[in-house]
Amino acid sequence: MVYICQSSGMPLGISDDIGINADGSGSKDYCTYCYHKSEFLESALTVEEMILKSSEILWQQIGDITQEAKKIRQNIPNSKRWK
């Protein structure tokens, strides 16, 4: 099963993408770009800033992100962190 980061909307498909909880275990909710040792790395980001950051990361990883960008824009504002 692929989880989706509840902050950035990024897929958590491989272990390198998974954020770390305070006890050192992997987070099922947050990615490594957002979360480390149970803290958000950029806690001052707004929802719009997170959408831009996520889109930039995806662009670097896969290039054409047209479909993924639509999903990010829809999913981030409704995710666990931003509700």
Show the helix and strand layout:
Layout: E1 3-4, E2 11-12, E3 18-20, E4 26-31, E5 35-36, E6 39-40, H1 47-62, H2 66-75
Antiparallel strand pairs: 1-2, 3-4, 5-6
Helix pairs in contact: 1-2
Task: Explain briefly what this protein structure is.
The protein has about 80 residues and is α+β, with helices and mostly antiparallel strands.
**Which H/E pattern describes the elements?**
EEEEEEHH
Biggest sheet, in brief?
2 strands, antiparallel
Average pLDDT score: 84
Tally of discrete structural domains: 1
Number of helices: 2
Strand order, sheet with most strands: 1-2
Beta content: 15-25%
C-alpha end-to-end distance: 24 Å
Task: Pick out the low-confidence regions.
Answer: none
If you had to describe this structure to a student in words, what would you say it looks like?
The chain is α+β, with helices and mostly antiparallel strands and 83 residues long. The protein has one domain (3-78). The chain is 31% helix and 20% strand. The protein has helices at 47-62, 66-75; strands spanning 3-4, 11-12, 18-20, 26-31, 35-36, 39-40. The strands form three sheets. It has a two-stranded antiparallel ribbon with strand order 1-2. It has a two-stranded antiparallel ribbon with strand order 3-4. Helix 1 packs antiparallel against helix 2 (66-75). The model has no long low-confidence stretch (mean pLDDT 84).
